[in-house]
Amino acid sequence: MTSPDPRTATPPHVMAVTAHAARCRTLAAALPHARIIHVTDGESLLREAHATIPDVVLLYSDTPGVPLHDILPLLRQRDELAATRWLAVGTHGLGELLAAGADALVSDATPPEGLALQIEIMLGRVQQQRAAHERLGTLQRRMDTWEHEERVRDQLVHMLVHDLKNPIAAVMGLLDIVLEDRRIPKDTQDLIKVARDESQHLLHLASNMLDVRKIQAGKMHLRRELIFSPMFEEIITLAQSDVGSGLRDRHLIVDVTPSLSPVSADPEILRRIMANLISNALKHTSAGGQIAVAVRAHPSGVEISVQDNGEGIPAEDIPNLFAAFEQSRLTLHGRFDTGMGLAFCKMAVEEHGGQIGVTSERGAGSVFTLTLPLTPDTEDEDEEDFADLLV
Q1: Average pLDDT over residues 198-225
Q2: Helix-helix angle 42-51:68-76, to 10 degrees
Q3: Whole-prediction pTM value?
Q4: C-alpha dihedral over 115, 118, 122, 128, to 10 degrees?
């Protein structure tokens, strides 16, 4: 180990617990860069270790008074001495010191140079441990700061979303009332429809942002129900109303297979998933475009697909398509898609135990497909039916 520069570093503290002061003088000559502290017995060691934190302590087994192997366990329990190294020195009683917590042992007949080398090795380990502890402390402080910032961010997002949702909903309600007034000119009605659709989009963004944060924090608790074919149709109808008036300019086809085996899902979250997928198809198709929603049986559950004949997705965008804020791309309507809605869909589907994916061809549209697993009881019945067929 390179000796510390005495002009820039505090010398390491080496305590020698022995009744023979000559041993300390010999040790001081072999370790000129260290401060050698002579301690006469175990009781004195208890006091000195409080006043000065030693780097290395030499425990001579022939030290009179209270046995050092009785004192060492007490000292090793102290947090401030966690990095201290304990070296048992002697001919007899080394096994007891080693059992009590000594890090190493050496004979008292070892030449001063050999003893100094052993101490140098221990000082190097002390330095490494303290450096690692300091780095760990720095990382822990950074982690505490990050966790605090995350909590503040979560609280801020939560407050913003809740403070935004009510006024946005109020604006949408007023716009709907205005749209019912037949005296308003057609061009003004079109502008109001745009304002209403943009308000709906803003409401979706706020809700998705809150739900993504909830899922990431493990705070979204699903309220599952058994979903049969008629309820799928109802959920899709509600999702259409959530998307807004833009669907009036699209040809929407809904095909739900009758008598599907039920799945266990949260109907409100499923409605949000469908609204996001239909809204995504709307944003990437032109007026007069086609959007097809299908619900079919699948070997592992129920498969739901949302297909459009719009612009399609560039191949380079697909790998990050479901990552929030990572697939910003310009839609046909001049709006950048943040991907927050698709990120919510992926997290929510996986929270249900399902999977979601996409296939797309540039210029030929896209198909988003998700699967929801059957309820456990249904799976058992299907397995029994299959077993009956084999008999």
Answers
A1: 74
A2: 20
A3: 0.53
A4: 140
